[in-house]
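To: structure subgroup
Subject: Chain for Friday's discussion

All,

I'm putting the inputs and outputs inline so they're searchable in the archive.
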Amino acid sequence: MKKTILVIDLVSSKKLNIIENFPDRILNPNMVSLMPQIICVWIEELGHNAIYFTYTGFENLKEELPKDLDLVIISSNTISAYLAYSISNYYRSLGIFTILGGPHAKAFSKDAGNYFDCIVGNIDKILLSDIIRNPNRLGSFISTDKKIEDFPTLEQRWKYIQYNINKFPYYRSISTNNSIGCPFKCNFCIEFNNKYYQLSDDHIIDNIKFLNRFNKKFTVIWYDPNFGSGISRCLNLLEKHFTNHKNISFGMESNLSELDEKTIIRLKRNNFKIIAPGLESWFKFNNKSGLIHKSPFEKMIYISDQLNMMSEHINFIQLNFIFGIDSDYGDQPFELTKEFIRRVPNIYPNFQIITAFGTDIPLGNKLDKDDKLIDIPYNLLDCSSITNVKLDYDLIRFYNLMHDISNTAFSYKNVLNRIKNSKDFSIKSFYLLKKIYGYDRSKFYKTFLNKLLNNKKFLDFHLGNNKIIPLEYKDKLKKELGDFYNFLPSKIRIRYEQS
């Protein structure tokens, strides 16, 4: 029997206002996940009707979500989990089965199983077909470890890609893959146990050939968790098959160990304009930077020189930091980062705070056994604001340090310097909008610190000494969910009502 299946990609966790959140109006349509589009292609290949819906925060969920359905599949990060739970509750009240996939399904599968008919980890078309036939799995978690043999091309996904481009047609960003999984096994990442394998050469060639048909500019973002291990192969294919692809620029994430000067020059020649390496820590994960035997200070000096070299060739470089991990202590991680920013003024630092995404992940499992997890609501876990880990820092001291490093990195002087030295108008605009709208978190850290200092109940909650959710977090969630707060599962709502 032919079924109608809604596939929802929750890019945003909340309702947004175009005046207050204008940068998200630009960025969110370009932050969509790859797998929901692939699911839609497979659904149609299996002979069913697929309806694709991307929530960027600016759509009216109550009016735009269809009702005449047989099945709903939702892809969600953890920060969007309460919205996913509410949408699931809404559709289940109509007698429609619901499936959860995406990062939250892998990280918090047991909890999510209370609110969906089925939780899915890794999926292929065979498993999808089985789920469509029998979606009622009583909230159980299912996954496959089989290699995906029929990964849909950009041409097959194009109508879903175009749907997102139409949400903000002035910047066309498209996601594709060179590989699946990640060769590194970081204990904080949901990819820790996924097999790493590269997609076929033909898949990459067909995708670029397809985009070359258009006389339009596109930015292709390689969606691989770590593109670095496939750089040489991809560059070889581009150089062999495409002598002219000036309308297509590229962006990627990579480990630093793959980014020597020879590779960077090749990347520039092939129109790579965005690179986001993961440093994570001065004290840990040295295999990703190739600096296993260097001290933290030596590592900082080496990477400063490497990033300065890269910034001479690449338009935009974002370096990712994680603060609060177990190897950090005292002021040193922050002071090293300040010195790094002084030495490498043109890169964009992305500061995150250690967050444990469920006990299904090695880090979360270890922290749970050590009684170091705090029951923080999902919608607060954006990786850069509030942690759910009992840190090896005095909490107030830690947020003072976060406020200080944010002020340093995103001072008007440093932001204006990045704008001045950037050669790309869209990147200049990105720097400016991020600063104007306070996306650097420095204002948040200042406000958060004042609450920690002046409200003991608030402090106790964030230390894990008190599980009663502060009233302001209830008001925040109601505002974020809008009409769908009424469909928040009762178990969760009862906890909020106690605030």
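Points worth raising on Friday:
The chain has three domains: 4-142, 154-433, 448-497.
The first helix runs from residue 22 to 27.

D.
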